[in-house]
Give the backbone structure.
Amino acid sequence: MAGMTRGMLRLVAATALAGATPWSAAAQQIAPIDAGAPQISARANGVDVRAAGTVMRVNALTDSILRVRIARGGVFAEDASWAVPAGFRARTVKVTPAADGFSTAAVRVRITAAGGLVVEDLAGKVISADAPRPVDLDGTGFTLRKALPFGQHIYGLGDKTGDLDRRGQSFVDWNTDSYKFMRSTDPIYKSVPFFVSAGGEGGSYGILFDNTYRAWFDFAHRDPNTLEMGAPDGPIDYYLIAGPTTGDVVRRYTDLTGRAPMPPQWALGFQQSRYSYMSADEVRQIAGRLRAEKIPTDVLWLDIDFQDRNRPFTVNTQTFPDLAGLARDMKSTGIKLIAITDLHVAAAPNQGYTPYDTGIAGDHFVHNPDGSVFVGKVWPGPSVFPDFTRAKSRVWWGGLFKPFVHDGIAGFWNDMNEPSVFETLTGTMPLDTVHHIASDDFADRNATHAEVHNVYGMLNTRATFEGLRTLQPNERAFVMTRASYAGGQRYGVTWTGDNSATWDHLKLSVHQLINLGLSGFAWAGADVGGFTGGPSADLLTRWFEIGAFTPVFRDHAEKGSPRAEPWVDGAEHLAIRRRFVEERYRLMPYLYALADRNAHAGDPVMRPVFYDYPDALKASCDQSMAFTLGASLLVAPPPKPESPQTYNVCLPAGGWFDYWTGLPATPMKASGDAPIMSATQTTPEQRINGDMVAETPRLDHLPVYVRAGTILPRQPVTQSTSEVPTGLLFLDVYPGSGCTGVLYADDGHSMAFERGGYLRQTVRCTVSADGMTIAFDKRQGSFSPWWKQIAVTVHGWKGAGAVRQGTRTLSASRDDAAQALRFTAGDLAKGGTVTITRG
Ligand code: GLC
């Protein structure tokens, strides 16, 4: 336990044993920051506040992002971060000083007489305020306290379990292999120390608490009005991000920690996995069945049994005699292979095992305090662990993928990277194992595992991602990870680990995926059907329905559990599951435009309803299972998915259509015949409560609504994203206020989109007394899409309509039962308008 103080040992022991916040340990040796009057001195972009031997430095990096660091004894900790790149930390913005603080163009920072930090909007509404006793120092540990007034809700913190709203709960960040975790299990696999508060008087704000040690959070759990965060060691360093909207906060958080890269389009397709498909023959059979049953699929996953004795970077040549041939054959059917590649390298000297031999030669593994290489047991038996904190070791690791990339493996799966170590009390490596940090703007230095543990998984994916980008500079890299840290979205997509085949886990997965999206991880999935236990037929069907609307859509199940491929429960279930997978493929143009949006702006793909409709926070319905896919689609599964009980869906104000029928879902409040609704036409009660719609669960149906004011692009079903759709692009126009949609396309896999090889086009609609105009902006980018014509359906349309594109008249058909007008327009690559005159 070299390098640890006794105080820290106590803290670590208390948290390790109790798995809870170490309140009793934190109670001694308290040195409050507010002892004595604080002295405030102005800096170019903020203030220093001196009190009780500490300095609190508040800097504005941008008008809405503040960085707060507290120096014990006046000495600041090393200014380095795995989450926030140096370039962003160096940003400054000019501030206007005041006697008690400063202001930016967006916020006012006030230091109270007691030395507390208050952040307000420019109208004086409080965004965030320190609690009366804002800082406790205890040995190397510390606790920070802020007020959490009634009415503020807390979201984010990655995929931690529990309810969607984190208020009233407390959590510990310590990446942990949590096989069969439950709703109450904490910590689990990831540490994303970022949360968003929504519902406060100054609007939403977020805090990134950039401390990699075993940090803790308490959101009005111990004290009903206080938010606490602390750690047993490490820097006191956090970023406060002002909104006012939740979207502003999340987008700015991805400015700060980086965005998920544009994924390959195939990653948005359906993915079939099992621990494990045991042979190439079995992989071929599964692929054949998927195609025979016409279940669109883009990916099959190879779990650890494709390897020789579970050794990463090997292949079992008995069962997978020709991996390259298998990948080639799969590719010809439109299926990509993803191969698991865990970080633990088998400790297998003198056996010609390259990862071990080259790793030892390059000194790339984590050491014991006595200088020997740390060995722990994982899938391959005794294993050694790459030290991903060294840039050189990451480069070495990245190079190991070369033969697999060469064989045509399309993506890689980094599992067990908490890291998981079997047959130990803690489930991971000892806290005093030694890493040697040589990376970014960190000082070259040794660090204990206690410091590195929570970033280890993220650095594993960084090594894989950067390695793949180097090996194939013109291809997008796909990495899936189980463990990660704030900013990990830059390197990998994620999933929620070893969930169970229960209805409660289906519910939990929705909360986990929403909170991951709010934490920067827009690309996330949960094992469809549940990893352990084997789902009932109904559960697997429901999970397929909901999974089809989640960012990463992968069916995966544990060894020894019943099979969970889509066909296992007979024709009726298969038909429903197929229909939902197909719908996912129809929606591909919309999903892909959301991917483009996420890559540029950081908006999550799957969102809580209040993300785009803040009044939903006050809705009276049970919205615990509702979510949106982008702003336009509201998916409303039963809040009790196992129950046939009727439930209400609260639709936010503004009007909605039923996705499946295209009919208005809320009463039209139209003037005359015009198929339009606007926010001003709804009553104040409706604006708060929205329009309630009663739904009675049916196993073959999932309620989905489209916001009035949406132009939704869809395409004909294909069997994979590599199949070019034949026919027309579908554009469904749902009239309403702010009516827009975005078309996005590129080649789906290369980096050409960064050099102009993409297509982005906004389409808008406006309704007038005489009819409607659909305006296509000029296209951005040089990519030529697959479609030559567009099949337009205008919903909520009554009567006839005369349609013109430029000077051409287009023939239109009316469908009175569906309240729709349909016509085919030309491609409008250069932009232009289509006008519809009411007939
Ligand atoms: C872990 C993973 C699981 C995988 C298994 C074997 O339990 O979470 O998804 O199938 O290891 O690799």
